[in-house]
Amino acid sequence: MTREPYLIGYARVSKGDEQSNAAQRRALDAAGCKRVFEETASGGRWDRPKLLEMIGQLREGDVVVVWKLDRLSRSLKDMLHIMERIELAGAGFRSLTEAIDTTTAAGRMMMQMVGSFAEFERAMIRERTSAGLAQARAEGRIGGRRRKLGDKQRREIAESVTSGRKSGAEMARLYGVSEPTVSRIVAAHRQQFSQQQREQA
User: Fold this and answer.
1) Domain final residue, candidates 45, 74, 103
2) Which ranges does the record mark as transmembrane (predicted)?
């Protein structure tokens, strides 16, 4: 025989918030919650003591109830992570204000749509990041940073070191770069010079 769903409420207010959990508690009690976990903590993080305690005690068939979705989390990413933890416990989720109930087909579809939008947002961020890096490389920047030395400065460093007028350490101090950077510039210059010599031969 299937047991009746055990409703567990979760109420949260932020630190420094003048409001209390009283209004949420009344709504959760009216919804039939047998137990309510109350917490005063920021919704910007998911690893809250009472939230973790509640998730750790969930059994299959339980239903987590909140007054409003943002009481669970203000971050979409964290909310989906919490929802996954609830689902792994075999429990359901219900939000009274948004009328979301994952124990129903419509509620599960709603959360799948939320997850799809979150994945779409992550994909857009990845695309913007890739486009930004490509633009940075086109402008002579690596990893979003502009090259510290221009072509003229790099040529002056290479010619000064290869001619013996200055040492690598001296040029590094003069231009404010590391000695390995100077070594790479000189090596690239020598390679380019050798290639030009072969082409002219």
Assistant:
1) 103
2) none
What's the total number of domains in the chain?
Answer: 3
CA distances from 42 to 8, 11, 90, 124, 157 (A): 20, 12, 26, 27, 54
Asked whether the beta carbons of 166 and 160 are under 8 A apart, the reply is yes
Mean pLDDT of the chain: 82
Q: What is the pLDDT of residues 133-145, one digit of tens each?
A: 776 666 555 554 5
Catalytic residue among 14, 42, 167, 178: 14
pTM over 0.85: no
Token couple for 74: 């203000």
Of 30, 39, 33, the residue nearest 9 (C-alpha): 33
Is residue 99 located within the same domain as residue 165? no
